[in-house]
Fold this protein.
Amino acid sequence: MNWDPRWDLGPAFIPKERYTTRAFTEVERERLWPRTWQVACREEELAAPGDYLDYRIADQSILVVRDDDEIRAFYNSCRHRGTRLASGCGALADGQITCPFHGWKWNLDGSCAFVLDPEEFGITTLDTPALRLGELRCERRWGFVWVCADPDARSLDEHLAPLGDWFDPLHLESMRFLWYRTTVLPANWKAALDAFHEGYHNYGTHPQLLQWSDDTAMRYEQFDNGHARYVTVRGAGPSKRFGLSTDQWDDRELLYEQVMHLGKSFEGGLYSDDDMAVAARLRTMEIPEGSSAATEYSKLVAARADELGIEFPELSPEQRAEGTGVFSVFPNLVMLVSLANCFMYRARPNGDDPDSCVFDMWALRLFPPESGAPALVRETVPHDDEVWGVIPSQDFANMGEVQAGLHSWGCDGLRLSTRQEMNLLNMQRELDRYVKRS
């Protein structure tokens, strides 16, 4: 498909056609998703040999399986007549991949194990490349399983740089699911993620956050490879839009209000009950000279983690004091990290529909070894269900309105703040690196 000049990005502008047209969705299907690394699942979802998961992206289905100590990814298509081999997730019967149509079988390494009446196909040996399942590149990093269909794509480490500087110390590989929810949103997958690339929307969508978080002091950073982050600067007080002076707030009280609200709003995904108890304890403590409420809070959380036997993140004092950082991970992840917790969004195209996406929300946590993580339950929930909590529900309420407004004859695209919304443009520029080449 030829490139349409209407899709060209401006210095602070994204054309609406990148969100609303089937033509751009088709370009992404052909040139983005087959060529880039993406998270298919967590390692814990494939705990035992024979466990499998069907990862869907656009119109593609990728079968991810555990083969002893290896995790492999295959095209989910029978080598006989193309039947999808498995759906959903679970354990493969007899430790083999079996076609439900004619019963052909494959071992977990992708080699063919059984063909009914092979002589009628001119098959003299099953040990032939033509009968192997098509295999994709598959690697593990930070407890996630990453897949890429392009044999010539850059390495996963190159793709993820420089995120390791922040993620390596967090022990993400030791985290486990607190909960896992999926919904379908009436918005393009990029529009669904755009709100989470910036904090500029807090004023209109989450005004309650401005009581303890200064949206005017957020720090935005764009990195290579389409990644970015923004950080809420702790100790900056409530939003400057309130016009309060530094003697009109108490950092301990602001931190407490923040932790309590975010802990409850994200259903425990960003702050645990222990974290909230620590924040309550901090309210009555004296802050040592030269320290801050955020620094003392991180020390208390680390001490509590040590009591529980939790492998606490190996963070620098500066990283601990920063608190929550919101990372955009190209192409389709947003990760909110908070000491021993990680809250994630993943958006995927819903087939070829530019006005719809599959949206996953994951709450991950470092759990005490004695109690362990709860059993993994994957829930599919309507996007307007109250189970999502205050902040996600506020965001979801915007999604359909954004997509509808983009279709307006009076809308030509997104006009971006040159400070607070450049993370959106950074992602779109990396997207162009894939879709503008044939």
